[in-house]
Each structure stands twice: as C-alpha cells, then as structure tokens.
C-alpha cells in the first residue's frame, strides 16, 4: 500500500509540473503576440474586412479619428483628410471626405487618399485608396486607404494621411 501511495504522489507531482510548464508557455506566447511587429499582417489590408490579429472583430470596429486636416483646392476648402486609428489592431489608415460630390473629370478619378508609414521618423511606405475602397470618382464623396501597422512605443512606427484632389488640391495631417 505504501508503494501505491508513493507512485500516486509521483504521478501527481509530474502532472502538476507539466501543467505549470504549459501555463508558462502559453502566457509567454500571449505576450509575444502583444509585442510582435505585425506589419506583415496589416500593411495594405482593408480596415473594414481585416480581422484583429487573433480576434474576430474588424479593425474599423474601434477606429477613431486620430488626426485631421483640411483639404484645399485653389485656396478653397473642399474636404477633410482623416488619419483613422484602431487601438485593437495598432493600425492606421487615411479617409478623405469631400464637402460635396465629386464633379465629372477626364479619366473619372477626382481624388484619392494616402497613408504614409514612418519608423523612428524615417519614411517606410505609402498605401493609397486602391487598397481601400478605391479613389473618389464622379458623384462620390469619400474614400479610404488600406492600413499600415502603427505601434509607436515598441516599434517606433507613426503615420500621417494625405488627401489629393486633381489637378491641384491637397491636405496632410500631422503624424500619430
């Protein structure tokens, strides 16, 4: 009977040690995801259809306007460019909203938005409206871009947004 109790105690000790090892491994994995550079996952992706990494909601579900600026053409304000940001995704994108529907123009494209990504102040890449919902065409009033991973404390990323109106309209936000 003594041997049986001794074997059960050893078994419980081994199972307990394995359980603790598994918990430690999974807690490390969760922290690794939290500090990973997810540029490969978010850059260029549509914020309305891309899920939070490891989650079930879309990046635009918690988005807010981090920065904004007027867009001017020939000295007249014709719209607003927004730098949108998702805390869950740590990603940013540009959204351009016109004050009135786009007029008919040659080629059909009147305006587009761009989000620029920087790392420690050095330009990295741009993503335009073609990665979002497309440029603004005749009769439309808004567009947005694909995203860029924009997590500053750990990775040093920042972003800004630009709105471009053909032939000579422009606006740009500050970085966030």
Description:
With 176 residues, this protein is of the alpha+beta class. It contains 3 helices and 10 strands, in the order ααββββββββαββ. Strands 1, 2, 3, 4, 5, 6, 7, 8, 9 and 10 form a 10-stranded antiparallel beta sheet that branches.
Keyword list:
single chain, 176 residues, alpha+beta, 2 domains, 10-stranded antiparallel β-sheet, 3 helices, globular
Helix content: 10-25%
Number of strands: 10
- What radius of gyration results from the CA coordinates? 24 Å
What is the CA–CA distance across the termini?
69 Å
Low-confidence stretches are 14-33
Number of domains: 2
Concise structural overview:
The protein is of the alpha+beta class. The protein contains 3 helices and 10 strands.
Blueprint of the fold:
Layout: H1 2-34, H2 39-42, E1 64-73, E2 76-86, E3 91-98, E4 109-119, E5 122-128, E6 136-137, E7 142-144, E8 148-149, H3 152-155, E9 157-165, E10 169-172
Antiparallel strand pairs: 1-2, 1-10, 2-3, 3-7, 3-8, 4-5, 4-6, 4-9, 9-10
